[in-house]
């Protein structure tokens, strides 16, 4: 008996070590990608894959051959959630050609991170289909037909509409030629559509019924109107940009592929639902006789953090009439807005509504049905009219004459001439407006606004310290700046020196070879203890790094590749295309 027991302990796979982070550094070989020659791997060991949150808090070999010796952080091949030969090809194309070996290593980790770690459920709708659920969930009327994809945010077991759109953005250009990527994104559009139809005011969602994945609990007891079913919804903060991101996911896919095949009846129902939200949330707080009228969306939480709940019984601060702007109760950081006409989210919505109108115009050419075409034209009119009135609302109500910086855009306003001057790291932000397509980066209004929000005198959340500098926000607090904001700063710059210094700053604090949510500007990041930053597994930030490198490869190849001024450009989906 005892001997048997002893023997079976000996036979236990070495994976016991998987559970203990301290050992990782000693046992790096186990986690090699397999691209680097044979080694003991998880397939051989036949053990479960390590939880990626823990995996990402240790450094795995091989290290980069740059001065920072950054680790390799991709899970073992057999532990990846989704693999795509086309995505591997992009890495094979770029990795050897990048002159900064540390940046190349981060790119190699970050570019596939969404696929490697966050595709928790996917059916392509052709060979695999959504099955029956092990749960019975109240009010789940979704059809779950066709391709579906559930893209988890990272270390929190839920899908955010905003995060998932951004998590997938760096693969969009592959969708035209790669069927697997195309189905993955089409699936993500269809899954988001179900979320929007059922709960258009919510920001984060549980795994869909047929995925068979367990829902999790966010530990709060929020009082929200309209009510929702917690086994379907992870959190229900109404953020205008969540809905803009749903539209953006489809618009990006259309721009990349020219295809309108994702425009299903469910998608149109989601669009109708969004239009209803826009109508409801463009209502002012008082009617023409200054009588209070209740808003459809209310949110209260018991908390000591002012940014986690809405005052005035869940309503938030009052909004004036006639602006054309749309209320957003919360920001893309999931913090409460102070003045709920949140400008970056309105700007993004204006752009995406206009793009959706063009998408529907393209769709009219695919049908000969007169009634359909008429209906499409009605949609197009509504979308364009909202898009225009939001844009005018921003230009008429959010431009402020600043004594130092001149004409700038406010972060928030209320329709009573109150303005909040600041920016937050999370996109949509003021800093990202040119990337969102709202302003050109050469416009004075943008340049003045940019100078303001990248100054500690113009933006209280521009934080700097001996170890790091960037824009943060109230979500993590006054000591933490977010690498994401520094990457957006790079992508909105025309100045090679500014771009390179942004990349240096981000690299310097990415000691685990991935991008953290935020970094303590005083102490930076400790390689041993992993202290000084937040969120080990934040897929969105990794995607922004990948997008930044791909942008450089296409627009400023001399900054990333050898060859100086004649360095070849690289375009995703096309390869190197000459200088
Ligand atoms: C920051 O992210 C890295 C992975 O990139 C992780 O190892 C580290 O633990 C994170 N920091 C915190 C405090 O979560
Ligand atoms: C919508 O897009 C068209 C070009 O496609 C542009 O001319 C127009 O100004 C845009 N409208 C708004 C409100 O952004
Ligand atoms: C990198 O970080 C260290 C401390 O963490 C700091 O001393 C150094 O100045 C930083 N370098 C850059 C380029 O930011």
Automatic annotation (TrEMBL):
<dbReference type="InterPro" id="IPR008928">
    <property type="entry name" value="6-hairpin_glycosidase_sf"/>
</dbReference>
<keyword id="KW-0732">Signal</keyword>
<dbReference type="Pfam" id="PF06824">
    <property type="entry name" value="Glyco_hydro_125"/>
</dbReference>
<dbReference type="InterPro" id="IPR008313">
    <property type="entry name" value="GH125"/>
</dbReference>
<dbReference type="InterPro" id="IPR012341">
    <property type="entry name" value="6hp_glycosidase-like_sf"/>
</dbReference>
<feature type="signal peptide">
    <location>
        <begin position="1"/>
        <end position="21"/>
    </location>
</feature>
<protein>
    <submittedName>
        <fullName>Uncharacterized protein</fullName>
    </submittedName>
</protein>
């Amino acid at each position: 008996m005892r001997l048997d027991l002893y023997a079976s302990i000996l036979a236990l796979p070495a994976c016991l070590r998987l559970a203990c982070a301290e050992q990782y550094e000693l046992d790096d070989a186990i986690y090699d990608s397999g691209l680097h020659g044979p080694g003991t791997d998880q397939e051989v060991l036949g053990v479960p894959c390590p939880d990626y949150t823990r995996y990402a808090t240790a450094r795995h070999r091989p290290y980069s051959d740059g001065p920072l010796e950054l680790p390799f952080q991709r899970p073992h091949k057999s532990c990846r959630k989704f693999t795509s030969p086309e995505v591997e090809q992009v890495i094979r194309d770029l990795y050897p050609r990048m002159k900064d070996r540390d940046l190349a290593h981060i790119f190699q980790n970050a570019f596939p991170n969404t696929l490697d770690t966050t595709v928790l459920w996917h059916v392509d709708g052709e060979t695999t289909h959504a099955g029956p659920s092990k749960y019975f969930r109240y009010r789940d009327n979704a059809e779950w037909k066709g391709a579906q994809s559930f893209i988890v945010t990272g270390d929190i077991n839920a899908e955010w509409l905003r995060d998932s759109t951004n998590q997938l953005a760096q693969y969009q250009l592959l969708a035209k030629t790669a069927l697997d990527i195309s189905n993955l994104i089409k699936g993500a559009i269809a899954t988001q559509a179900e979320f929007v139809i059922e709960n258009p005011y919510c920001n984060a969602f549980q795994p869909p019924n047929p995925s068979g994945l367990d829902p999790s609990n966010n530990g709060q007891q929020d009082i929200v109107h309209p009510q929702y079913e917690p086994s379907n919804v992870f959190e229900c903060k109404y953020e205008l940009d969540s809905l803009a991101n749903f539209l953006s996911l489809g618009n990006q896919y259309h721009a990349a592929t020219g295809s309108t095949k994702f425009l299903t009846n469910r998608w149109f129902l989601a669009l109708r639902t969004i239009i209803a939200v826009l109508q409801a949330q463009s209502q002012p707080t008082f009617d023409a006789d200054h009588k209070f009228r209740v808003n459809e969306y209310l949110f209260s939480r018991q908390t000591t953090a002012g940014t986690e709940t809405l005052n005035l019984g869940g309503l938030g601060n009052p909004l004036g009439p006639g602006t054309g702007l749309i209320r957003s109760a919360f920001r893309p950081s999931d913090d409460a807005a102070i003045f709920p006409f949140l400008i970056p989210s309105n700007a993004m919505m204006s752009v995406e509504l206009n793009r959706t109108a063009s998408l529907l115009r393209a769709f009219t050419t695919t049908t000969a049905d007169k009634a359909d075409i008429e209906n499409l034209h009605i949609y197009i009119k509504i979308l364009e009219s909202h898009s225009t009135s939001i844009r005018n609302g921003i230009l008429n109500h959010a431009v402020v004459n600043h004594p130092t910086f001149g004409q700038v855009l406010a972060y928030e306003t209320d329709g009573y001439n109150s303005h909040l001057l600041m920016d937050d790291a999370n996109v949509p932000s003021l800093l990202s407006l040119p990337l969102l397509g709202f302003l050109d980066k050469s416009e004075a209004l943008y340049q003045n606004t940019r100078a303001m929000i990248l100054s500690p005198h113009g933006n209280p959340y521009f934080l700097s310290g001996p170890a790091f500098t960037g824009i943060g926000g109230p979500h993590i607090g006054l000591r933490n700046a977010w690498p994401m904001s520094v990457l957006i700063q790079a992508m909105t710059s025309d100045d090679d020196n500014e771009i390179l210094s942004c990349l240096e700053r981000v690299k310097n604090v990415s000691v685990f070879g991935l991008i953290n949510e935020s970094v303590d500007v005083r102490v930076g990041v400790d390689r041993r203890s992993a202290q000084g930053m937040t969120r080990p597994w934040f897929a969105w930030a990794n995607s922004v790094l990948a997008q930044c490198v791909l942008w450089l490869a296409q627009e400023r190849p001399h900054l990333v590749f050898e060859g100086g001024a004649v360095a070849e450009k690289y375009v995703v989906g096309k390869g190197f295309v000459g200088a």
